[in-house]
Amino acid sequence: MKYSTRYIKFTQSIALLFFCFSSNAYSELIQPGDLRLKHDIQLLSDAGIITAPISGWPIFLSGISLNRDEIIKNSPNLITALERVFPEKESHDDIKINLGFSASNETDRIRGYQSRPRKNEELSWRLATSKGRFYFDLRAKVDKTHIGKNSARPTGSYIGMAIGNWFISANAASRWWGPGWDGSLIFSNNIRGIHSLSINRRVAKKFDIPFLKWLGPWTTQILYGKLEKNRNIEYPHLFGWRMGFKPLNNLEVGLSRVAQFCGKGRECNSNTFTNMLLGNDNGGDNISIKEEPGNQLAGFDLRYSLKKAKLPFAIYTQWIGEDEFHGLPSAYMGQVGIETWGFNSLGNNYRSFFEWSDTSCDVIGGSPQLGCAYEHSIYKSGYRYKSRSIGHTIDSDSRMLSLGGLIINDEGHIWSVVARKSEINRSNGKNHTISITKEKISSIELMRSLSYRKGSIRFTFTRELSDINPSKNLFSIQWSWRN
Q1: What is the sign of the dihedral through the CA atoms of 201, 204, 205 and 207?
Q2: CATH number of this structure's domain 3-482
Q3: Which of 3, 205, 303, 369 has the maximum number of C-beta atoms within 10 A of its C-beta?
Q4: CA-CA distance, 349 to 39, in Å (whole number)?
């Protein structure tokens, strides 16, 4: 869906109208795609400064009390990360303006956490501000296909209102559900933001109910949106729910669930939604084939860290089921990773990770089931949006090993490298978004990002080798400016 400039002007007018209201309930959705920001937030979380669950993006960092003097005294290595995440001089009522430009010789087939150009040339702008309980983040991206068409993409935009400890928004926000550094099995920013309505818990607090307090600080988000027209069933609905909690300071747990249902030509009423919500969607099993509401995925993820070791490290994993058995997810896809971080003798901070992902079903049993993950007998376009997988970038029936790392200095400049070895589309599925035949791909991605007071410039080079296609060199440049 492309939004015209009339829509953008309308949202700007709404923002100015609500700017008159006042109440102290500042809220900002922090979206995925910035590798340095993810590293900084994880660094502060592992140091105990951020206590909220942070594996389900977009996230809130509301309600966090900072004793800067104590942090500076006890953890001087964290000062630069602290200032980047919580700028001391920034006012919540500031009007934020961002301008950006990106160019590439070819878009990437395999995408990691860091945002990359989706078109060969693209211009972007952002206008964001808050007033009382309202927050407005209006964004637009334009490439050469929009010239003369009076249209733009609103990816990342949202208009929201805080009500108590909840934030309700209309948005096209990016999402990343899971602890992985190079992929998520259920929701990732491999796709553009889906237009949806969302409810998010702002401040992560413990339950007041005694027998639930052990869950620790918790947060949740719910979304309801629609997918695009150009698929076998037009405009199917998408429902998503995630809950994250921290029963221990060094343990974070996430539960996720996503469902496709309704759409043009499909039954769509309160019974359909109820059956979807209750998991009655296995045609011929717990519901008739005619009344089967749709396609669901659900599962869990964990991240456990050992911060007091001589070399701190964390183990993380994610398991997402494509099927159901006795009311619980089954036919799991899997991901396992390990990461470490620290500070070198020059004062730079670093992080490295090793990650394995497999998007075939039943990977635990040793006999993977092909033609199952991200596919469905009714929704034949699968768990995809605008020709990209909503889940892991490698799409269905694929597996990938990733080895990556980054170094950040005090000025915020970054060196990053990720090496990947993958087997793509082992089932020769015709809906696959990377390759319509089985293919082995190896690649190495180098990124250099330079930060300055009013923005950044980023250079990326990727060398890709394939067993069936010619090798490729991919280049991109991304520039941004902010007020």
Answers
A1: positive
A2: 2.40.160.130
A3: 303
A4: 10
Question: What does each C-alpha distance from 215 to 13, 298, 314 come to in angstroms?
Answer: 42, 20, 20
Cα–Cα nearest to 3, from 104, 138, 111: 138
CB within 8 Å of 315: residues ≥ 6 apart: 303, 304, 305, 336, 337, 338
What is the spatial distance between Cα 94 and Cα 131, in angstroms, rounded to a whole number? 9
The pLDDT-based confidence of 172 (bands split at 50, 70, 90) is very high
Q: 76: cis peptide before it, omega within 30°?
A: no
Confidence category of residue 277, pLDDT binned at 50, 70, 90: confident
Beta carbons within 8 Å of 84's beta carbon, 6+ residues apart: 36, 37, 40, 412
Q: Whose CA is closest to 407, among 369, 356, 350, 363?
A: 350
Asked if residues 299 and 324 have their Cβ atoms less than 8 Å apart, the reply is no
The sign of the dihedral angle between the CA atoms of 102, 128, 224, 33 is positive
pTM for the complete prediction?
A: 0.91
State residue 17's pLDDT score: 46
Is 151:2 a contact under the CB 8 Å cutoff? yes
Helical residues (DSSP H) of 279-404, grouped into ranges: none
List phi, psi (to 5°) of 437. -140, 165
- For 105, the token pair is 């010789």
Q: What 8-state DSSP symbol labels residue 402?
A: E
423 forms bridges with which residues in the sheet?
399, 440
Whole-angstrom CA distances from 60 to 129, 166, 175, 200, 245 are 16, 11, 13, 9, 14
How far apart (Å, rounded) are the C-alpha atoms in residues 46 and 251? 10
Q: Could you give phi then psi for residue 83, rounded to 5 degrees?
A: -70, -35
